[in-house]
Inverse folding.
């Protein structure tokens, strides 16, 4: 094919092609541009709406704080909250209702009932076992003592064991009941006696000769600290580790009731018990203490013990020696607190609810901490009563009137 033959052939081929419709192409391109602009407009409107919503939320938070968005750092204030009366050594303190007014206080319901007294009829523990002990009292029978156990259903059982006096008095220690509420321990001359309320089994564990007066359970329910003046032992009453001896001498104290686990409060310090049988300083504690009374009892977040104070300028007294309950926090997020047992009224306490009992002076040694009802309520024995001090609200309630002598409480108090 020659060069001059190509142009005619191209003209013939172009004649056979359809003519393009430029109007249709322009219309399609216009529709595409219109849709793109509509999408951009819708997205812009949505973006503006989101920005306005964020701005409105920010304004609302700025006016009301962040409580609606972030959880509070501390629990809400109880409706019956009672403000502290002031501070002692930098610790908030409350003043307890005066002696003689206990009957007028609101009551905390427990298996102890409104008045705790010796039962008229009691069944043998072997025939009426208890799954959890709420309280223990002793009945004098000649020269011996017999333990009566109160269950969480308010029923009584008597253990078939005769207990000898210790230090010329009752062998009942305020720390007698195990943490699970099943076993009760009693110090005896040359031995430790335990009563399993769930099986009625009575066991004895030999001790060296000594004047043992106090018992305190470890949290594992397997070991007990038994103490007398200047001497103390850890007794294995359950399953121990491989090669663990049944009896271990540990650090003692001149005050037998100071030997407690897992913590003990002493003048100037909060101490933690170690598996080595010694205590280590957990933190300083500066209080105007003349002497400590009773055992230290621990909960999940705090420990409590009663003290007799020197004169307190913050709580002037004329007729009584100041006493107080120190509830010391073991968690940094909670504050320690004090409850001061104040002066009696002159005559009988009078309130709109009626008249209380004749007032009296709470002498040093009359009162002690008996344990914890729960994480926030400390149980305190005063003359003739058991009271509950609510650490969250500051309120004090009566638990029961006492018509018995010495008393030990257990976890069966709780539902």
């Amino acid at each position: 094919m020659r060069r001059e033959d190509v142009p005619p052939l191209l003209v013939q081929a172009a004649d056979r092609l359809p003519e393009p419709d430029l109007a249709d192409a322009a219309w399609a391109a216009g529709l595409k541009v219109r849709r793109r602009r509509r999408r951009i407009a819708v997205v812009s409107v949505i973006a503006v709406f989101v920005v306005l919503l964020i701005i409105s939320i920010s304004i609302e938070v700025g006016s009301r704080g962040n409580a609606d968005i972030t959880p509070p750092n501390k629990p809400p204030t109880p409706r019956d909250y009672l403000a502290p009366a002031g501070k002692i050594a930098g610790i908030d303190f409350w003043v307890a209702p005066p002696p003689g007014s206990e009957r007028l206080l609101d009551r905390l319901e427990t298996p102890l009932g409104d008045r705790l007294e010796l039962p008229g009829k009691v069944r043998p523990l072997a025939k009426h076992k208890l799954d959890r002990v709420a309280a223990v009292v002793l009945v004098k029978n000649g020269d011996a003592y017999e333990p009566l156990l109160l269950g969480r259903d308010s029923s009584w059982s008597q253990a078939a064991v005769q207990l000898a006096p210790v230090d010329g008095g009752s062998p009942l220690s305020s720390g007698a009941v195990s943490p699970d509420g099943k076993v009760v321990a009693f110090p005896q001359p040359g031995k430790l006696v335990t009563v399993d309320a769930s099986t009625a089994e009575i066991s004895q564990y030999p001790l060296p000769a000594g004047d043992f007066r106090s018992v305190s359970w470890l949290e594992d329910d397997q070991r007990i600290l038994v103490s007398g003046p200047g001497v103390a032992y850890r007794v294995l009453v359950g399953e121990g580790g491989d090669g663990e001896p049944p009896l271990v001498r540990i650090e003692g104290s001149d005050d037998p009731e100071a030997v407690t686990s897992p913590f003990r409060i002493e003048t100037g310090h909060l101490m933690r018990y170690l598996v080595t049988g010694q205590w280590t300083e957990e933190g300083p504690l500066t209080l105007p203490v003349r002497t400590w009374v009773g055992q230290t009892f621990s909960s999940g977040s705090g420990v409590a013990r009663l003290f007799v104070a020197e004169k307190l300028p913050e709580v002037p007294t004329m007729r009584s020696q100041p006493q107080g309950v120190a509830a010391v926090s073991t968690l940094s997020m909670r504050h320690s607190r004090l409850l001061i047992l104040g002066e009696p009224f002159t005559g009988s306490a009078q309130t709109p609810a009626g008249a209380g009992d004749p007032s009296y002076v709470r002498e040093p040694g009359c009162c002690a901490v008996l344990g914890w009802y729960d994480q926030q309520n400390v149980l305190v024995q005063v003359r003739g009563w058991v009271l509950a001090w609510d650490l969250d609200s500051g309120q004090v309630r009566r638990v029961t009137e006492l018509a018995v002598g010495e008393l030990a409480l257990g976890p069966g108090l709780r539902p």
User: Anything to note?
Assistant: Residues 57-72 have pLDDT under 50 and may be disordered. Residues 33-71 form one domain.
